[in-house]
Amino acid sequence: MKSYTDIKQSKKLAEILPHESADMLILNNVGRSGDVDGTNCHTILKENLNPLVEVPEILPCWSLAALLSVLPNGTDIVKEEADTENEHYMCTVAIKYDIISTFGKNPIDACYQIFIKLHKLKML
Fold it and tell me: Is residue 39 located within the same domain as residue 86?
């Protein structure tokens, strides 16, 4: 299961969310910022980064717990499956009188999509 946002998601969320809300960092050891699949990168917990270490690219990334902590109370993520090949997750947020839902292949992707949708609707 996916444990944290990937590079593409992290870059987009870094434009939307406060960096302080991230609980992890992606370190790109070879300085290839186009490494979207993360093969040349690794993640560490934010508090484990030595400030004296020089890293070509440091990017905040979010675990599911960190993403949920930024969303309103009552945010719900539910696994829905028609069959094992088509399972997906739905993330639902209630803000005032609106209910917003998004889908993803895993909870992180579903949560990421809710942030993108809320940002577009100017509800963050």
Answer: no
Please state the domain count of the chain.
2
Task: Looking at the structure, tell me whether residues 78 and 33 fall in a common domain.
Answer: no
- 33-55, pLDDT tens digit by residue? 444 444 445 555 555 555 545 55
Phi and psi, residue 48, nearest 5°: -90, 0
Distance (Å, whole) CA 93 – CA 27: 31
CA atoms within 13 A of residue 121's CA, in its CB half-sphere? 14
Give this prediction's pTM.
0.77
Distance CA 113, CA 26 (A): 20
83 and 44 in a single domain? The answer is no
Reference 113, options 23, 8, 36, 24; nearest CA is 8
